[in-house]
Amino acid sequence: MSEMQDRHITEAFDRDLEAIQALIMKMGGMVEAAILDSAKALEERDEELARQVRENDKQIDRLEEQVNEECARVIALRGPVARDLRTILTVMKISANLERCGDYAKNLAKRTTVLVQMQPVDGSAKSIRRMAREVELMMKDALDAYIQRDAELAEDVRQRDAEVDQMYNALFREFLTHMMEDPRNITSCMHLHFIAKNIERMGDHVTAIAEQVIYLVTGVLPEDNRPKGDRTSFAAPGET
Amino acid sequence: MSEMQDRHITEAFDRDLEAIQALIMKMGGMVEAAILDSAKALEERDEELARQVRENDKQIDRLEEQVNEECARVIALRGPVARDLRTILTVMKISANLERCGDYAKNLAKRTTVLVQMQPVDGSAKSIRRMAREVELMMKDALDAYIQRDAELAEDVRQRDAEVDQMYNALFREFLTHMMEDPRNITSCMHLHFIAKNIERMGDHVTAIAEQVIYLVTGVLPEDNRPKGDRTSFAAPGET
């Protein structure tokens, strides 16, 4: 292949990649909004907003399909190798993680629809919203890190996941206490607990995105050495 | 490119694909074992078996990495297009879904380590084990469907996920009842509930594998028209 042809292919690939990255950014923006709105709907008991979050998730799903199709098209058409191929495969992983976060936000919105029928549990929705905000900020930074190819920022996001895990552990204890104090809280606390767990899982997916960025920039997937995580599976809170 | 060269590339691709499929089958076997063993460890309160499940998960994770690396290598080396490319991308998605199921089994095993310290909750571990068996059978069939390129069997797997969802809904009600009857059951029921939910999620991942098989064979990703699912987010059991 001549140098000229080579350059044409590279330029074409770069254009394609930019178009796909634009889709990722759009998806990221929608997922960030879904996280914030679902937590807001829960705290403000806003059923209409919860309904919107559920409705918007369909668009997020469609965007993921579009990213997959575009990536497959670019691989087939441009035959990327080495770093370019790694970039395309990374993009597919990032969009899969975004889609999962969107699903969790949708699930949060669904449970909100149930929870508004019940007696609120003191302060819980506020704590959950704080946790959701933290995850949304992590996601914003993870996507920035991707666009800037900033491994340091990505590493920072990764470390911050431990804070989300701590918030979850605190909430788990809070819910157990509410349930034991008053059995009428049991059903709503089960739902709230799921919501908290799902936000904690979103944090894991954002962390996975950050790790993909680190892999993309450095070529090495970080070892699992960050402080983990959900400790409720190791010891029942109050018994540690 | 000459016809001869073409045929060589096709043969080389087929050989590569077979090697990757062998990895997927190995991974599938390990994940199936993890599902069954983790549920067995829970019912029989076998801490050593639970420890083994957690240990084995590292191997499953390594296999997923290996699949990803091999797929990237094959794409770079053989430049597959159309159906071949679709196959490779499908394989990557299947291995990601298998890895998630492995994670859920590991989580089940972790919670078992906590639960053996507590008073057992009547009959729950037995019901959970039945649910795990159902999911393991679905996974076996989903992987068979992949190897045989059998869209009909994959569709069958997809439909069976509704049964797993029903099992989960029944367990959710059971746990709520136990918690309301005796607050001393609350902590263990929270863990058991998580376990049940995680098995239900494994079912979703197996369904995703089945859908990938359908996509691979027919070129069309099935519409979301199967009977869904976890109804606990729509209405609290006992209140429907």
Outline the structure in words.
- Two copies of one chain form a homodimer.
- By secondary structure, chain A is mostly helical.
- Chain A has one domain (3-233): Methane Monooxygenase Hydroxylase, Chain G, domain 1.
- The first copy, chain A, is built from six helices and no strands.
- Chain A has helices at 3-44, 47-78, 82-115, 124-148, 151-181, 186-218.
- Chain A starts with a helix and ends in a 22-residue tail after the last helix.
- Mean pLDDT of chain A is 90; it is low at 234-240.
- Chain A binds chain B through residues 65, 68, 72, 75-76, 79-82, 85-86, 89, 92, 96, 107, 110-111, 113-114, 118, 172, 176, 179-180, 183, 186-187, 190-191, 193-194, 197, 221, 232-236, and chain B through 65, 68, 72, 75-76, 79-82, 85-86, 89, 92, 96, 107, 110-111, 113-114, 117-118, 172, 176, 179-180, 183, 186-187, 190-191, 193-194, 197, 221, 232-236.
Summarize this, please?
The structure is a homodimer of 240-residue chains. The first copy, chain A, is mainly alpha-helical and 240 residues long.
Oligomer: homodimer
Strand content of chain A: under 5%
Cα separation of the termini of chain A: 65 Å
CATH architecture of chain A: Up-down Bundle
CATH superfamily of chain A: Phosphate transport system protein phou homolog 2, domain 2
> What's the count of strands of chain A?
0
Helix/strand order of chain A, N-terminal first: HHHHHH
Radius of gyration of chain A: 20 Å
Biggest interface between chains? A-B, 38 and 39 residues
Main β-sheet of chain A, in a few words? none
